[in-house]
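hiii, so i know i said id send this last week but things got crazy w the move. better late than never?? heres the sequnce for the chain we talked about at the cafe, plus the structure i predicted for it. fair warning i was half asleep when i ran it
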Amino acid sequence: MEPEKRTWPPSFGGSPIGKDRVVAAEIGELLERERLCESVAATDSMMQALYPNGIAPEHMADAFGILRILDQMVRIAQRKSTSGESPWRLVASYAILAAVRHEPGFAVSLVDELQARLRYKREKA
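okay and structure toks below
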């Protein structure tokens, strides 16, 4: 089977220029509705307090987990969930992933994990 040929700019059944304005307006409404700027500002301040000297490469995975948890904490405090998932369940899932990653003898890097996922997808296809 031949791969699908893609063209640029993509066609949306009409002018791509018109569609990009529609998408931009929808994203603007999402930002306003979900107050995402407030969430980003709050998480940014908390990350700066936790990592005043920046994040060392060996701490990047933990920092990412902390960032995701802080984002969910903001959602909990503001009583909203954009994904429909319980923010408390998401916090628990990030905590479980971090706990497993810190088990003795567990040394799978993010690159190894991504490569394993890609292999799995290829094998399933």
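btw Residues 16-34 form the longest helix (19 residues). thought thatd interest u
miss u guys!!
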